[in-house]
Amino acid sequence: MEWYLKSAVQGNAIAQYNIGFMYQTGRGVPKHYSRAMEWYQKAAEQGDAGAQSNIGYLYQGGLGVRLGVPKDYSRAMEWYQKAAEQGHAPAQSSIGYLYQSGLGVPKDYSRAMEWYQKAVEQGNAEAQFNIGV
Questions:
Q1: Contacts for 68-77 with beta carbons within 8 Å, 24 or more apart?
Q2: What percent of the chain has pLDDT over 70?
Q3: Average pLDDT, stretch 43-54?
Q4: What sign does the dihedral 7-13-126-123 (CA atoms) show?
Q5: 8 Å CB contact between 113 and 96
Q6: Percent of the chain with pLDDT over 90
Q7: How far apart are CA 70 and CA 55, in angstroms?
Q8: Cα–Cα distance for residue pair 89/59, rounded to 1 Å
Q9: Is the pLDDT of residue 46 over 90?
């Protein structure tokens, strides 16, 4: 964490993402979703697709609602879109899931399939599974 912080405060998006991931997963630090969100935001502002997708994930799950990350499917979709526009397969798959489930958007299996296909073209196993479903 010490070395990531040194790099992150200098604006390194990868270090910022990694700190967010550590807080999200509790690796080396206690789980703290709002802190994860703060660091992901810093990386996302620099265009980091992984951070953008993980922000979507935090909003989709409402992870840590007591810690400042409420469930918000519309915001999840916004962040997934940012990552998906950069070709980020996990975000594309997540958009498919939101359409498949009707979370924050009208249920639409054909749009879900379109998004899953984009992710599948990149070898995304989750999208492959969801197409099977």
A1: 68/33, 68/34, 68/37, 69/33, 69/34, 69/37, 72/104, 73/98, 73/103, 73/104, 73/105, 74/104, 76/103, 76/104, 77/104, 77/105
A2: 95
A3: 98
A4: negative
A5: yes
A6: 86
A7: 11
A8: 18
A9: yes
CB of 130 within 8 A of CB of 120?
A: no
- Is the pTM value of this prediction over 0.85? yes
For residue 61, the model assigns a pLDDT of 86
DSSP of 39-80: HHHHHHHTT-HHHHHHHHHHHHHTTTGGGT----HHHHHHHH
**pLDDT for position 70:** 87
Q: How far apart are CA 3 and CA 124, in angstroms?
A: 32
Place of tokens 């492959």: 128
